[in-house]
Amino acid sequence: MELPLDHFRLIGVSPSASSEEILRAFQLRLDKTPDEGFTYEVLTQRSELLRLTADLLTDPESRREYENLLLNGSSGLDFSSNREVAGLILLRESGSPKEAFRITRKALQPPQTPALGSGRESDLTLLAALTARDSAIQEQQLRSYSTAADFLSEGIKLLQRMGKLLEIRKELEEDLVALLPYRILDLLSRDLNDQESHKKGLSMLETLIIKRGGLEGNNKSEYGDYLNQQEFEAFFQQIRPFLTVQEQIDLFLELQKRGSLEAGFLAFLSLTAIGFSRRKPEKLFEARRILKKLNISGLDSMPLVGCLDLLLADIDQASARFSSSSDENLRDWLNNYPGNKLEAICIFCKNWLENDVLVCYRDIDSTEVDLDSWFEDREIQEFIEKLEKKSKKITIKSNLQNQLTKKESSSNITEDFDSSSANVDERRLPWPGGIKQEFENLDIYENKFSEEIFKNKSIEVYKYLIEKIAELKFSFGEFLDNKEILSRSPYLVYLYAFMILFIFGIGIGFLRNNFKKSIQNEVVTDKPLIAVDKIQKIGEKDIIQEIKKKPSNELLSTIGTSAVKNSFKVEKITKASPSIAEIKNLINVWLLSKSNYLAGKSEINLSKIVSKGLIDRTIEERENDMKKGIVKEINSQIQKIDLESQTSSRIVVLVELNYLERIIKSSGEFVNETSLTPLKVKYILGFSNKSWKLVDFVSGL
Q: What is the C-alpha separation between 160 and 181, in angstroms, rounded?
């Protein structure tokens, strides 16, 4: 048998060692005989091999010849069959236990299997066990824990097959158990492309936690002596950053089913993390449901649920949660915060997300949290709007059923109003900083009133009255925002509420009589602001041709847009229910200002009527165009505008535009032209800081 060993390694000296050093090393090796339980015969062969090596290396002629062989590429030493085991022992002692284990394992397998009960079988089995452990230790030092576990597993299987060395096998099994946390860390920390190793690590982690009795370690398991609770928690903190957020959700939910409260809380955090980072508000509902069911001693869940309410734009509920907190320091901080209470809640939520929620996930970057981008996200706004509508429908249905059962006279309007307000839906805002709409129960009252009074009237009458009611509601809400008045006498609230309702009842008759006249006025108001007579003379097809033929400055005068330009003013819309004409004018101001800015003719200053996010997007578009050395000449005309939906905090209109876009290099060279007739665009307006602002748009519907 040839072993990967030379005489210098066999005796344990360097190739430059002197004869004295070689003899000294030889004597030390003889004195340090292995005492693990090898037979006398193999130990005698070991001593003989050491003596032969010492003789060869101390004889100058023999050493010179051997060194020449090494220089010519000779490697390894040949051992006779009766000295193979002794050679393997020396190979292990030379610092190569992995090579010794592989060769020994092979020598114990057919057709080389030694005779049962022989000294060779006994020595090889013992050597296999020892080299398996030595190899595992060597791999652990290299942090290759999974490979170390493989050596231990192979050694255990070999001893089980041989049916020998029960005590040593037990020691190997204990070493393997103690190595488990390190194996898991090794497997999970590998690249995600190694899916097989990652799945194996996940399975082993779940098994480990279940055997321990959850994250709390409630069961006595085989790992108790090697991994106490403190050690396990430190280990688990190292493990989490190597798991994706979905993997953690699946793991924690499974452990929660098995009774682990700590896992339930971590599932709540993970669902919040995926809900916020991936813009999935439905996950926040699931997280809130889990948290409410948890009964963890000493956990103040109120501010955490309040943060979820805030992210779902439920401002009132979020404020109530924080006020219900058992943490006196938190309540004092909120009460003494120098700014608005909503601002304080937003700061708390932001810090909570950054420090406790969006951490320890392999696929989530724990960057600075931006709540504005969350609330300005179109999908978030649509989800909140659907949630608001669904909640209002349930409330309105309940109120109408109560009205039908009571059958009270119209003189009890005030009482009906009070009962409706008791069941009013929680106020919701699509973004922080929006106006705190008071008395949302007026929404319910207007719907209930419309159902009972106007159910047999035309749709036009219904829409007209709803608009007037919304204006009345907004005015009343503005009045109630005056804290100074409220502080003087709280009874003024009820007095003014009754007066408004009384005037409202009288006004119904007046509105009916003047409805026709008002509709005519509305038609006049909604007329286009451009020179209609000129457009009619040119005709729609001619307009498009003019757009294509002429640049922006000539086109404005051709179709009367100069009149439009002069009439477009950057004015806030503060009415609770703006008219189509006002919305159209706001959009026209936006289109004209954006066109001039992208053409490099002016700055964009529309913060009064356009959200910061939309302005920033336009500025970014212009900066990209400047890098490319181009400008855009855009001409767009509103041909049709329809109201799609409207709530107290959000308006959506569908617009059809005649649209022409020219791309021109800074040198004046024409690049490209795009013409769309019509271009369908959905514009979204939101109520913020007591006025309507253009929040977003979706084109190409």
A: 24
Cα 330 to Cα 701: distance, rounded to the nearest angstrom: 48
The tally of CA atoms less than 13 A away on the side-chain side of residue 46 is 24
How far is residue 90 from each of residues 11, 45, 81, 125, measured CA to CA in Å?
8, 10, 15, 16
What band does 701 get if pLDDT is binned at 50, 70 and 90?
A: low
Asked if 662 and 451 count as a contact pair (C-beta separation under 8 A), the reply is no
How far apart, in whole angstroms, are the C-alpha atoms of residue 673 and residue 662?
4
Segment among 158-172, 445-459, 613-627, 642-656 with least mean pLDDT: 445-459
Handedness of CA 328, 330, 333, 339 (dihedral sign): negative
Residues 6+ apart with CB under 8 A from 131: 92, 97, 98, 100, 101, 104, 155
How far is it, in rounded angstroms, from Cα 130 to Cα 681? 76
Distance CA 328, CA 351 (A): 19
Give me the domains of the chain, ranges plus CATH numbers: 2-188 (no CATH), 243-369 (no CATH), 381-524 (no CATH), 532-699 (3.10.450)
Mean pLDDT of 165-173: 93
Q: How confident is the model at residue 494 (pLDDT cuts 50, 70, 90)?
A: low
What's the pLDDT tens digit per position in 174-213?
Answer: 999 889 999 999 999 988 788 999 999 999 999 999 988 8
Distance CA 60, CA 81 (A): 29
Per this entry, what is the length of the chain? Answer: 701
For residues 360 and 240, is the Cβ–Cβ distance under 8 A? yes
pLDDT tens digits for range 247-264: 999 999 999 999 899 999
502/504 Cα distance (integer angstroms): 5
CB 22 within 8 A of CB 57: yes
| More confident site: 485 or 352 | 352
